[in-house]
Design a protein that fits this description.
With 533 residues, the protein is α+β, with helices and mostly antiparallel strands. The protein contains 14 helices and 24 strands. The longest helix is centred in the N-terminal third of the chain and has 17 residues.
């Protein structure tokens, strides 16, 4: 643990402030709070180091930085309490910390219920109890007169926050419609599934890790052979290297689910002691790309007044949260709407919406508040400023917008951006801003899921027709390609990996290959339907 000089300011504990958690951290500092970071055992050392690099902060900017060790919740709690800080709230910044957030919150609530009464404390985690002695700094007069309102999600079993199978079974037990699905952990399980479903006339299923995020490992299958390949790939841990900085999935089990042919929506909510308000609803544009089954091309902000289905989707989501017993915190639900069947659960993510928080300024510009600002109001102001004064759901929004995901059809070490392509994006009438997640010299991945998204572009315009025209054009630009990458190994002539160009006659790719041809061998591939001339 590292610690700075103790101050008397109120302190916010942030568990894994990655992705949107970086913005949450910044806003806590901007509001005048001290911050304690608790890194969970699910966040990697690389991600922790990158956090300091990206934020420009040092260890000394925080009251303490505590690294949680698996199975040592007692040690982590004692480290927090031993700091002697004036704790105001505890919040989670990213998917990796959602379980530790509740473990800490539940035990801190128990501690504050007995502080000053006893010198020992019973820590409960994963079905086990540990009795620990409290450090002297935890029982002081100022602590007894200022007991913080520590919030936990309220769910009976915190595993439901990450376990998609448990989410489905809980919703189903409550009489809520869900997709057909089966949890598989062995070849025998897969055989049982295929025996029951492979004779379906229209065999289409989706395989996904039982626990995960960012669409990592989510695979569409239309044959038993494809099912076996996807199962082996997920269970074999093949995606672990793909997620070296962020642990977006594990290979404990594979959920096989019917393929839901419909439109996917995101429903973002903030819960305050059982009162649940929708802070935004989005519609996804997911498409196959680079071999990925469900690559996010964009999401667009919606209002309740636009379509009666939006209210139906929200009501469905509220029923699911009621079944979970979710009382406090931010969630964003992924729900598929299928004509003739209505809404069906994809999954509930028990945290702030991710994507590095790029959506926050967009939503706040269109609505005046965001899931982030409302969550902070609930945890820091008891909801008296924003939560109590916003509608239960956004009835209308100002303007129309797309949060467009950049994508890459090349991989390797990023050398540069094709400036002529970027200029075309900057010239769009609805262009409002963009952000690159990778910089020259960084590793650029083929875009197949959310962790491999290289950036985002924001489009906003009051005229929906102009906005849609721009969206169509930006997709053409991104499909042509905007990145130049060279194979890993360095920009010298010892490289043995060639650059494969699948569109050698494109003017864009001609520009790109001329840029790197002095250092990389080029292999041009043309399809059999390409005009020979």
């Amino acid at each position: 643990m590292t610690a700075a000089t103790r101050s008397n300011k109120e302190t916010v504990i942030l568990v894994d402030p990655l992705s949107t958690g970086v913005l949450l951290e910044q806003r806590c500092f901007d509001a005048g709070y001290d911050v304690i970071i608790v890194w969970s055992d699910q966040s990697s050392p690389a991600a922790r180091a990158k956090h300091l690099q990206d934020t420009g902060r040092t260890d000394g900017d925080f009251v303490a930085i505590i690294v949680h060790e698996e199975g040592r919740l007692d040690k982590t709690l004692l480290a927090i309490l031993g700091v002697g800080a004036n704790i105001k709230a505890l919040l989670c910044g990213s998917n990796f910390g959602v379980l530790l957030e509740d473990e800490l919150a539940n035990n801190l609530k128990a501690f504050y219920s007995i502080v000053g009464i006893t010198s020992t404390f019973k820590v409960c985690a994963e079905g086990e109890e540990v009795i620990v002695a409290l450090p002297p700094t935890t029982v002081t007069p100022d602590r007894l007169s200022n007991i913080p309102h520590i919030r936990s999600s309220g769910v009976n079993d915190i595993a439901i926050k990450c376990d998609k199978y448990m989410q489905y079974m809980t919703a189903k037990a409550a009489g809520i419609p869900v997709a057909r699905q089966m949890l598989t952990k062995s070849e025998e399980d897969v055989l049982a599934f295929l025996k029951e479903y492979s004779n379906d006339e229209n065999f289409k299923v989706v395989l996904k890790p039982q626990k995960g995020a960012g669409s990592v490992g989510v695979t569409f299958c239309d044959s038993p052979m494809a099912v076996w390949t996807a199962f082996d790939t997920i269970m074999g841990g093949s995606y672990c290297d793909h997620c070296t900085a962020y642990k977006h999935y594990n290979n404990d089990g594979v959920l096989i689910q019917e393929f839901m042919e419909g439109t996917e929506y995101i429903v973002s909510l903030v819960c305050n002691e059982g009162v649940r308000k929708c802070t935004a609803m989005w519609k996804y544009d997911n498409r196959p790309y680079n071999g990925g089954s469900f690559v996010s091309f964009s999401k667009t902000l919606l209002s309740m007044e636009e379509d009666q289905r939006h209210r139906e989707i929200l009501d469905y989501t509220l029923r699911v949260l009621e079944a979970f017993g979710y009382m406090n915190g931010a969630i964003h639900a992924e729900v598929m709407y299928i004509e003739g069947r209505g809404p069906l659960l994809v999954e509930i993510n028990c945290r702030l919406q991710g994507a590095k928080g790029d959506w926050v300024p967009l939503v706040e510009a269109c609505m005046g508040y965001s899931q982030l600002s409302v969550l902070m109001d609930v945890y820091l102001n008891e909801g008296k400023i924003l939560f109590d004064n916003i509608p239960s759901a956004p009835e209308s929004i100002v303007g129309a917008c797309y949060a467009v995901k950049m994508r890459s059809n090349v991989c390797g070490i990023l050398q540069d951006v094709i400036q002529s392509q970027l200029d075309r994006i900057l010239a769009l009438p609805s262009y409002k801003g963009h952000l690159f997640y990778v910089q020259p010299g960084d590793k650029l991945l083929l875009t197949v899921d959310l962790p491999s998204i290289p950036g985002e572009v924001t489009l906003v315009h009051k005229d929906k027709e102009i906005l849609d025209q721009d969206y169509a054009l930006i997709n053409e630009i991104l499909n042509d390609g905007i990145f130049i990458a060279i194979p890993e190994g360095g920009p010298d002539n010892t490289l043995v990996m060639p650059m494969i160009n699948t569109d050698p006659i494109s003017r864009i790719m001609v520009d790109a290959t001329e840029t790197v041809s002095s250092t990389v061998d080029i292999i041009n591939l043309t399809s059999d339907d390409t005009n020979p001339s």
